[in-house]
Every structure is written in C-alpha cells, then in structure tokens.
Design a protein that fits this description.
The complex is a heterodimer of chains A (149) and B (499). Chain A has 149 residues and is mainly α. Chain A is built from 5 helices and no strands. Chain A is 68% helix and 0% strand. Chain B is globular, with a radius of gyration of 22 Å. By secondary structure, chain B is an all-alpha fold. In chain B, strand 1 and strand 2 form a beta hairpin. The two termini of chain B are 43 Å apart. Chain B is 75% helix and 1% strand. Chain B has one domain. A two-stranded antiparallel ribbon of chain B has the order 1-2. The chains are: A mainly alpha (149), B mainly alpha (499). Chains A and B meet through helix 2, helix 3, helix 4 and helix 5 of A and helix 8, helix 9, helix 18, helix 19 and helix 20 of B.
Chain lengths: 149, 499
C-alpha cells in the first residue's frame, strides 16, 4: 500500500486536491454574489472545487493503476543549498548591503556542487559582487544599498 | 501596397537609430548567450533584465527583450549540434539530426543550415507579423467580453493539449495557475483574496518571482542533481553545405516556416511545439524516414526554421489583442506596463513608432544573429567549456538581484524561494509548469471578462454560445479537448512526444 501512496501520480493528485481545498476554504470568507453580479468568492470557489475533483481523480487513478512510475530518486542537497543561498541574499541585502549579500549567496549556494575550492569560491564571489555593484547600482542607478548604512 | 510599406518604413526609421540598433544587438547577443548556456531560458533571462528596462525608452526596451527571445532560439541550436545538449528546450529536436551530422564531420554545415533556415524563417515571419497584425486588430474590434473569455479558454485548452505528459495533470496545473493569478485585491469589490494579511500580496503574486522560482531555481537544482557529463565536442568542419544538402534543406525550411508561423500564434504554442511539429511533418513526408536521427539535413532545417518563425509570430496575439500566448509574451506585456502602455488593439494606432519599430527590429535582429552565430561561433563554443559550478552561482545571483530590483522588495525574494520549492516538487511529480504559468497570466483577465459578460447577459451563460465568434472559439476548445482525450488520438500524441 505504501508503494502505491508514494507514486508520483498519487502524490501529485493529493497536492492538487490540497491546494483546491485550501482555495475553497479561504474563499468561503469572500462574498459569493450571484451569476449576474459575481462576488470575490464566486470564481475562486468554483475553481477550488474543480481542483479538488481533478486532484482526487488523479490520486485515485495513481492508486488503482497496476504499475505506475514511482517517485524518482532525489538528492535534495543541491536544492537545499540553493535555497539557503537565496535566503542568505534576502536576509543580508537590506542589512548588510549588496556586496555582502552577493558574497554570502555565492558562498552558500556554491556548496550545492562539489568540488568546493576555497580560493575559487572567494574569486567567484568577489567577481560577482563587483559585477553586480557595477552593473546594477553604479550603471543602472538602482536604489540598492551597496554597504551597510 | 503603401499600407504595408509606409508603416514598415516608419518602423525602420525607428529601429535604425543608433540607440535602438544597440539595444537590438545587445538583446541578440544576450539571447545567443543564454541560448548557448544550458539551464537558463529566455523566461528567466527576460525576468532578470526587466529592471534594466526601467531606464530605457519603451521602444528600446521592447526591442532588446524581443532580441533575447529569438536570439535564444538561434543560440540553442549551436549547443544542440556541437555537444548534443539542447541549450534551449525548443532545440531538443535539433539534437537528433544536428549532432548526428556533426558526428559525420558536417557540424559546420549543420550550423550554417540552422542559422540560414532560421534567418529565412525570421524574415518571412516578420512579414507575417507586419501583415497579420493590422488585420487582427480590425478583427479584435469585434471582440466583447464574451469573445475575450472564449479566446482565452481556447488558449488554455491549447496549452493543455500541447503540454507533455498526462492531460489530467496539465488541466490541474492550469486550474492551479488560474487560482494563483486571482491572489491579491479583487478589482471589482476591493476584497483581499488569498493574501493572508500580507501587504506585499495585495497587488497579487508577482509574475517574476513565480517564473524565477518555477523555471530558474528548480531548473538549476535539477541540473545539479544530474551531474551530467558532456559529450565530446564535435569538430567544426567547413561551414558551407554541399549542393545536395542545400537542396534538401530549402523545402524543409519552407515547410518549417509555415508550420512554425501558424503554431506560434496559438496560445500555449510557441517555439517548442513548432519545432516538434515541423520535425514530425518532415519525417512523414520523407521518402526514406529511416535517415532521420542519423543526420538528415531536413531534420535540422525544419525544426530550426519552425522554432524561429514560431517565436516571431507569437508576437501577433500579444501586439494585436493584448493576450500573451506564452510566458515570454507575458513578460513583454509586463515591460510595456512599466512604461504605462496598455497592450491591446489600440497600441498600433496610438503608438505606431513602438509597434512598427519593434516589427522592423525583428528583421534587423535576425540579420545580426546570422553574423553572431556563423563567423563568431568559436566564441560561443569556448563559453561551453566554462564549468557549471562557476556558472550557476552567477545565474542565481542575477536572479536574486532581478527579483529584488523589480519592486525593491525582499519579500519577493522569499516568494521566489517558495516557488523554487514548488517548482522542484512539480518536476519530481512529473507536472509541467508551462500550463500553470499561462493560467496564472490569464486568470485575472478571464475572471474580469467572465464577470463583465455575465453582467451584460443578466446572469445567462448562453451569451457565450449565442455570440458567433465566441461560440466558434468555445467549440474549437471542446473539439480539441475531446480529441486529446479520445484513445486513438491520445496514442498519436504520446507517439509524437516520444519521437
């Protein structure tokens, strides 16, 4: 049974149904209106129920199929470090300035792929930080702080 | 005749100013660059560069963004032919015969055929855009809310049919996209929908964070997971095709251009589908189909001309109706909106400089691309030797800056992060993100037109079938949906994608 539950098909269906249910639940608070004067909740509720039905159908089809694709083997390490890199950028940008944010983003995101050579990463980080500062702040004049205020 | 040539002359006078020529060249160069580099497509690049266009004149901005789009179609073929790796998803088909030609020592000829077929297709498609857009604008004058709704419904169905994999999942992705598009303040009542009290969401989910998360971040993660090994690079050989090769390539390029031009206009179509369809057609028509996959010249000329023609003609619905047929066009509409231009039938009459300047620049850009791709191919090949571990941090950093700079909002960077996770999940669950994106773009427009049509008809849904244009569009959508669900055609579709 567990094998059937973790199939890509089944999980995709469950994900869709969950999104649909959330939409229906949230849209219940919005005025529904009438077909002539549709309120803010009319279309989201309809779409939400549709997504629940579709998701359920996909999940059931995945459960009863004799053989279906299992969830592909995944190595989530690269994704994790990419996300941490983006998070580092977001955290540092307005507090530490663009240069620090880029350097941190590169240093962290670069962990997603081996080999990790310190000298190379430092060079890459400083190269990208200066390129980013030159193009976006000095060249295009975007209002991004370069260094901590 | 003057109806065609006078506006085109105006267009060239706009496109040939030094400034606009520069933006065109820059766009073509950047497009080729991202076309050559795997793991980053035109959607992510254009999204990244949107902040740059704040500073430009609207014409220059659109010319540059357009250059990136069709430049990517040219550049993608270079990697497909030389290292058997599609730089762009629309070049997947070119790998089959392009790399086979390269193995036989005809890499140079394959590159030349690809570039010249693309240029031919670009020229024809530019003329089609110039001719068809005014007609489309006249047609659009007949459109009311019901027609717009039905047209978009047809577009969504087309996108579902054209997506890879299961139809049910593609429909679900579209519906999810429509729902995500409704996030934000409801224009009619001012109700905050799906905003969770977050002020940044009251304007809706940004298109750029969504596209960056689903396409750039998820794509890099999947690439890194693969640890792909590149095929050895083929020797270039002479650039000139032999007489036989040219003879085989020309009719294939003609047919590819025709197929691409038609499919490009279809919502959800665009370059990828055009390339697939043109390749399949050539294989059907060939006297000896077994040659395909082993280095048939027609197998390079047809998809390459088709993807470029499709990239160009997808501008028609965007320019004439204000409806984006694909994600790149949605970004173009975003770029226009930044400059206060509302896309739609009125753009051509109110902003003829912009409209015809853009059309003329397409032809100039195609000419530039032949030069960029043939004599300078050595430079792009050298770029391929840059290891991915140096490339992807650069892509990631520029994505982050691009997302932030759009609204100076850190929140949008976090949003990108969230959609990155979702995009990764979709890849693993076998759900293609393209229909979601189209649903997201069309969601608010569809709801608005649905409400308007229903108000006009006093709540009677028959308005959608009583108005002839709307009825035809809906009938086409229904037929298409039934066709794709019918077992016999379903097998055909699966076969087409398997090829």
């Amino acid at each position: 049974m567990f094998e059937r539950l973790t199939r890509a098909e089944t999980l995709a269906g469950l994900l869709f149904a969950a999104f649909g249910a959330a939409a229906v639940w949230l849209a219940a608070d919005y005025p529904y209106g009438t077909p002539t004067r549709m309120g803010a909740g009319f279309v989201p509720t309809g779409l939400g129920w549709g997504l629940v039905a579709l998701g359920a159908a996909i999940a059931v089809a995945g459960l009863i199929a004799r053989d279906a694709d299992a969830l592909p083997q995944s190595d989530t390490r690269p994704l994790l470090f990419l996300l941490l890199g983006v998070a580092a950028f977001a955290l540092l940008l307005e507090r530490g300035g663009l240069v620090a944010a880029i350097a941190a983003c590169v240093a962290v995101a670069r962990l997603a792929e081996r080999p990790y050579r310190w000298r190379e990463v430092v060079l890459l980080a400083s190269g990208l930080a200066s390129a980013g500062a030159l193009i976006f702040v000095l060249g295009l004049g975007l209002p991004i702080p370069l260094v901590p205020r | 005749m003057n109806e065609l040539f006078d506006p085109l002359l105006l267009g060239f006078s706009v496109a040939l100013t030094p400034g606009n020529l520069f933006w065109c060249l820059l766009g073509a160069l950047l497009g080729t660059l991202i076309g050559v580099l795997p793991g980053i497509g035109p959607v992510a690049t254009i999204a990244m560069l949107l902040p740059i266009t704040f500073q430009l004149e609207p014409v220059g901005a659109l010319i540059m963004l357009a250059g990136i789009y069709y430049g990517a179609q040219y550049g993608g073929s270079t990697t497909a032919i030389l290292v058997n790796m599609p730089g762009e998803s629309s070049s997947v088909v070119t790998c089959l015969d392009g790399f086979a030609m390269a193995r036989r020592g005809r890499a140079g000829a394959a590159l030349a055929v690809a570039a010249l077929a693309s240029f031919f297709a670009g020229t024809v498609a530019t003329l089609i855009v110039a001719l068809a857009s005014p007609a489309m604008v006249k047609f659009a004058m007949l459109f009311g809310a019901a027609e717009y709704f039905s047209l978009m419904a047809f577009g969504l169905v087309a996108a579902i049919v054209l997506a890879h994999g299961s139809v049910a999942k593609a429909i679900a992705m579209t519906v999810l996209g429509l729902l995500l598009g409704l996030c934000g303040t409801d224009v009619n009542s001012g109700t905050q929908r799906f905003t969770f009290g977050i002020p940044e969401l009251s304007d809706g989910i940004g298109f750029v964070p969504l596209a960056m998360g689903l396409f750039a971040i998820a794509e890099i993660a999947v690439q890194l997971e693969k640890h792909f090994v590149r095929d050895a690079m083929a020797k270039m050989g002479t650039l000139w095709p032999t007489r036989e090769e040219a003879k085989e390539a020309f009719p294939a390029a003609l047919r590819g251009t025709a197929v691409g031009s038609v499919l490009g206009v279809l919502p959800g179509g665009g370059a990828l589908l055009a390339a697939f369809a043109a390749y399949t057609l050539e294989k059907r028509l060939a006297k000896d189909p077994s040659r395909f996959g082993k280095g048939a010249v027609a197998g390079v000329a047809a998809p390459e001309s088709a993807n470029n023609a499709g990239a160009q003609t997808s501008f028609i619905p965007m320019l004439a109706l204000g409806i984006p047929p694909n994600a790149v066009m949605a970004l173009m509409i975003g770029a226009m909106a930044i400059h206060g231009i509302v896309p739609g039938p009125q753009v051509m009459t109110r902003e003829p400089d912009l409209f015809w300047g853009l059309v003329a620049s397409m032809w100039i850009g195609n000419l530039m691309l032949v030069v960029i791709n043939l004599p300078l191919v050595g430079i792009w090949v050298r770029l391929l030797r840059v290891p991915y571990r140096l490339l992807y941090p650069a892509i990631l950093v520029f994505c982050c800056i691009g997302v932030y700079a759009l609204n100076n909002s850190v929140f949008e960077v976090y949003l990108t992060l969230g959609f990155g996770v979702l995009g990764y999940l979709f890849v693993k669950l076998g759900c293609e993100p393209a229909p979601l994106l189209l649903g997201f773009i069309l969601g608010p427009m569809m709801e608005e037109n649905l409400r308007r049509a229903m108000r006009l008809s006093r709540g009677d849904p028959a308005i959608f079938v009583e108005r002839p244009i709307s009825a035809v569009l809906l009938a086409m959508a229904v037929v298409l949906l039934i066709a794709v669900l019918a077992p016999s055609l379903r097998r055909l579709r699966e076969k087409a994608f398997a090829e």
